Amino acid sequence: MLAKLTALAVALALPLTTAHGIISNPPAEFDPSKMRTSYVATIQAFFPGKFDDSPQVNVANFNAAFKAQSQFKTLRDMLDPHGPDCGYTYTNVAKKAIPSDGTMTWKNPDTGEGFIPSHTGPCEVWINDKRVFQNDDCATNFPQKPEVHLPVDYSSCTGDSCMLRFYWIALHQAQWQVYKNCVPLQGNGKAPGPAPGPAPGPAPGPAPGPAPGPAPAPQPVPNGGQCANIQSNVDYYGNDIKNIGVSGSNQDKVNQCCSACTSTSGCAGFTVNGNTCWLKSKLENRVERSDCLSGSYSASAPAPVPNGGQCASIQSNVDYYGNDIKNLWVSGSNQDKVGQCCSACTSTSGCAGFTVNGNTCWLKSKLENRVERSDCLSGSYTASASGGASCGSVASNVDYYGNDIRSFQVHGDASAQLAQCCDGCSSTSGCVGFSINSGTCWLKNKLDNRVERYGVVSGSYQKHHLRRL
């Protein structure tokens, strides 16, 4: 009986451990003898660094190591040798129409979600040999359910057909999981024009007119406006913050992309590829890529770090890993989020600080394990001698992984969410800080394991004296 129960448990667990997703639009077709949602190969972690930590730490370590190495220019370069060329998908099937909305849909039909949240890791989409989408952490940055729509530039699918290729590596454990899907597509019909025929011989007649003028000058590189150093046929791999659709002439696309960069926290530059603008936190890993346009942006003055109000020492791009008491939802500008998180810390017993990550405020019992994390804001909180509470050391783009006491939703603008998170920390026993991430305030008993996390705001909390980070 025990053996039967064990076998049943294993059988029931299999879909949960091997079911991870498929391309549903344009629809991929699969070998029926294989589990269509399964990974197709594994790779034992071989980059320098630690890869048996949390999924968030693993992906941060992977991306840092990938950018530091020179063996692979793209994720595809790394994954192509592992597993079947197109995974378990068929390529000799009817060509599928290009989706009219300009996206590729990824979903797990067995679980009703897109990417599995714990399966952090980069992914890429290619049309033939042109990369048309890339993100450093697809599961984190595309959390939508029941499916995810990745923006794809299909303009390079010319002629009668092309091949759509999807690559994803899941880094939640040291045995990395490789996912590959392919879909043959109907081309957009824009085949290259025919080669010119031979020039006709001269016909007898009057003397020829004046010789033609000089050949037209090459198309000028677009003016970057507020953005400088516009480069043609150049891409910067990775470090993507987000992407947006752009249209019109190359000058129009650069203008739209530059405008988006100037209004996006942490944007240092961009790459325009077709009708997609990729905003980037760093311009690293320069590669030549046909028809790309890249530019840099430097604000005349750095964006101000939010004022922590009752919370002090607001730090941008800083997270304090762990020691979370609870989390709550915050929204609005970074200043709004810090204010809401600080308020929550002041009203939460034990809150010594916090981290705001996206729309989540994480209240923390201690501000330990400081790590750099893009777009996080961390701060500390000090209760006044009269029994009041305050948070200080608020840092943008900083999260503190782990050490969570509890979490709760925070609402309103950034200040309101920060205030709610800070108040929550002050009223929560053992809370020393917090992080706000996507509208959730996480209270922490330690601010350890500091990591950079885009959109997170973290803060610290202490009673009776100021805590400096």
Automatic annotation (TrEMBL):
Alphabetized Pfam families for the sequence: PAN_4
Translocase as UniProt keyword: no
Keyword Disulfide bond: yes
Apple domain: residues covered: 227-300, 311-383, 391-464
Biased composition regions of type Pro residues, renumbered to the chain: 193-221
Keywords: Disulfide bond, Repeat, Signal
Residue numbers spanned by region Disordered: 190-224
Alphabetized InterPro entries for the sequence: Apple, Pan_app
Coiled-coil ranges (or none): none
Domain of life the protein comes from: Eukaryota
Signal peptide extent: 1-19
Protein's GO biological process: proteolysis
One Gene Ontology CC term in the entry: extracellular region
Designated name of the protein: Secreted protein
Species assigned in the record: Achlya hypogyna (Oomycete)
